[in-house]
Amino acid sequence: MTQVALRTHKKEIMSETSNLARRKFLYRLSRSDYERVWGKDYSKPGLGTRILSTLLHYMPKIGPLKGMDFKNPTTQTESMYFTSINLTVDQYRSFLDEVKANSLKLLDMDLDSGKATGPAEYSIADETYAKLLQQLAGNKFDLTSAGLREDILRFYSQPLAPIETKKDAASWENVLKELGQLQAFTPGPALAVDSEHSVRPASSATQK
C-alpha cells in the first residue's frame, strides 16, 4: 500500500520545496550512508501495484475507502519535520561533546510531554519509579547513591498526588513499604565506574 500511495502521488511528493532545513537534512543523510544501511537494491512497483494504484486513483474516497485518502504533507509540515530532525542531531552531538568533557547534565524532563518529571504527570513514569524502587529494595539498596535516593523520595513527596500505582492497592502498599526502607537507608560513598566497567568508591577512582 505504501508503494501504491507513492506511485499515485509521485508528482506531489517529488515537488517538495527545497529549503535550508531540508538541504541540511539531506546533507547529513548522504547516499553512501543510506546505501550502507539500507543497501543498493531497489524494488520497482510490480504490475499489481500499478493496477491497484490506478483503481484507487479514480475511486471516490468515501465510506470504507475514506482511510485510503492519502494526504501529502504540506510545505510547513515538511519544514517542521526536517527542522526537528536537525535539532535532534545537533542536540545529540552537543550531548556527546559534554560526555567527552565530563560535563553532561540532563534535565529531569519527560521526553514524551516535554514537562518536568513528577508524580502523576505521566502514568508510565509512575510505573517506572515503582519498578525502580522495587529493584533497588530487592538489592537492599546496595548501589543506591545519595542523589538517586533523594530523587525517589522527592518523586513520592506528594502523598495526595493521583499516582498511577495507587490504582493497585497491593502495588501501592509495596511502594509505601519500600519507601520506608529507603528513608531509613544511608547511602555509602559515591560510586564510580572505571575503564574496565567495575564499580568502586569514587575516592579510590580519584586516587587511581
Q: What is the structure about, briefly put?
A:
By secondary structure, the protein is mainly alpha-helical. 55% of the residues lie in helices and 3% in strands. It starts with a helix and ends with a helix.
What report would you give on this structure?
It is a single chain. The chain is mainly α and 208 residues long. It folds into 2 domains: 2-100, no CATH class; 123-207, no CATH class. Helices cover 55% and strands 3% of the residues. It has a two-stranded antiparallel sheet with strand order 1-2. Helix 7 (123-138) crosses helix 9. It is elongated, with a radius of gyration of 26 Å. The protein starts with a helix and ends with a helix. Residues 192-199 and 203-208 have low confidence and may be disordered.
Helix amount: 55-70%
Average pLDDT level = 80
Q: How many domains?
A: 2
Using only C-alpha atoms, the radius of gyration works out to 26 Å
Task: Classify the secondary structure makeup into a structural class.
Answer: mainly alpha
Q: How many separate helices?
A: 10
**Main sheet strand line-up:** 1-2
Total strand count, please?
A: 2
Q: Major β-sheet, in short? A: 2 strands, antiparallel
Q: Beta-strand percentage?
A: under 5%
Dominant shape? elongated
Q: How widely separated are the two ends?
A: 60 Å
Question: How do the helices and strands follow one another from N- to C-terminus?
Answer: HHHHHHHHHEEH
Low-confidence stretches: 192-199, 203-208
